[in-house]
Amino acid sequence: MADQSKLSTILAHSHYATSFEAESDDEVYDERKESLVRSMLQEIGEDPNRQGLQRTPLRVAKAIDFLTSGYELSAEEIIKKALFEEDVREMVIVRDIEFYSMCEHHMLPFFGHAHVGYLPQGKVVGLSKIARVVDVFARRLQVQERLTSQVADALMEHLGAHGVAVVMEASHTCMMMRGVQKQRSSTVSSAMRGTFQDDPRTRAEFMSFIKA
Length: 212
Ligand SMILES: Nc1nc2c(ncn2[C@@H]2O[C@H](COP(=O)(O)OP(=O)(O)OP(=O)(O)O)[C@@H](O)[C@H]2O)c(=O)[nH]1
Ligand SMILES: [Zn+2]
Prior knowledge:
The protein is built from nine helices and seven strands, in the order ααααββββαβαβαβαα. It folds into two domains: 4-67, GTP Cyclohydrolase I, Chain A, domain 1 (Orthogonal Bundle); 72-211, GTP cyclohydrolase I, C-terminal domain/NADPH-dependent 7-cyano-7-deazaguanine reductase, N-terminal domain (GTP Cyclohydrolase I, domain 2), CATH 3.30.1130.10. The chain is α+β, with helices and mostly antiparallel strands. The protein has helices at residues 4-13, 31-43, 56-67, 75-80, 127-138, 144-159, 173-176, 195-198, 200-211; strands spanning 83-85, 92-103, 109-119, 123-125, 141-142, 163-172, 187-194. 42% of the residues lie in helices and 23% in strands. It is elongated. The structure holds guanosine-5'-triphosphate (GTP) and zinc ion. Zinc ion is lined by residues 103, 105-106, 108, 172, 174. One of its GO terms (molecular function) is zinc ion binding.
């Protein structure tokens, strides 16, 4: 793992950094990861010293740290920063939250949308924090079902809500680019907690909103 300050820099600059930043050729980000990538390039018959690949180990090390940065983040801290007392009793839904994750079997991306609903119990959470919680668990090696449950469990635990519902729809590149090679299939997973699990009408209301 790269040290914290380097990882923080990557997270801070991830929205506007370009691949052609003017950095020195001898820049080292994470020697161990870079050397593993160099070995991988050699194993696939590439020449890690050819011009186009010289900075690839460094770029891959940075990319992999970003794509797995969720291990360093706490859903509890994110939620507690923006929890507001509010006497709201109606369902709140944030839908179509795009996410990118990596399957733990092949370390290939799966990506799609998450729909998250909750029934408040005296508190509401800042809406962006719901999307941030999705990223906390998406930016790890995952299976889609566990990702869905972890988002639901974290929100249920730290929101103090009557219930939480999470539905995720994703395309798995390990099923598209290789293996069974099915381009149009998508996978839907759901995790219902509290009222959404116990009351079919609440669940149906949520499902009708996310389909709308
Ligand atoms: N349940 C679940 N399975 C997943 C997920 N991501 C990938 N997989 C599956 O994990 C399984 C791993 O199966 P294996 O037979 O060990 O691996 P494989 O030989 O590469 O399998 P194929 O993909 O069928 O070629 C595959 O069926 C993948 O489709 C996920 O998020 N959830
Ligand atoms: Zn996979």
